[in-house]
Amino acid sequence: MIQLNEEEMKLVKLISENCKTPADVTEKLKNLFAGTLHIFL
User: Fold this and answer.
1) Alpha carbons 17 and 19: distance in angstroms, whole number
2) CA distance to 2, 4, 6, 36, 39, per residue, from 24 (Å)
3) In angstroms, rounded to a whole number, what is the distance separating the alpha carbons of residues 8 and 14?
4) pTM, whole model, 2 decimals?
5) Residue 5 CB coordination number (10 Å)
6) Per-residue confidence (pLDDT) for residue 21, from 0 to 100
7) What DSSP character marks residue 17?
8) How many C-beta atoms surround the C-beta of residue 7 within 10 A?
9) Residue whose C-alpha is closest to residue 19's, from 8, 35, 32
10) What pLDDT digit, counting tens, does each position of 1-41 carry?
11) For position 40, what pLDDT does the model report?
C-alpha cells in the first residue's frame, strides 16, 4: 500500500469528498489539474 504523509492524506480526504465512484474522483482530478494549469498561463 502507498504510504502518504499527513498533508497528502488531507488532500485525499478533500478530493474524495462527495465522490461516489472512481469516475467522480477522476473528473475532480481532471478539473483540479486544468485549474492548476490555468494559474500558470
Assistant:
1) 5
2) 21, 21, 23, 18, 23
3) 10
4) 0.70
5) 8
6) 97
7) T
8) 8
9) 32
10) 789 999 999 999 999 999 999 999 999 999 999 999 889 88
11) 87
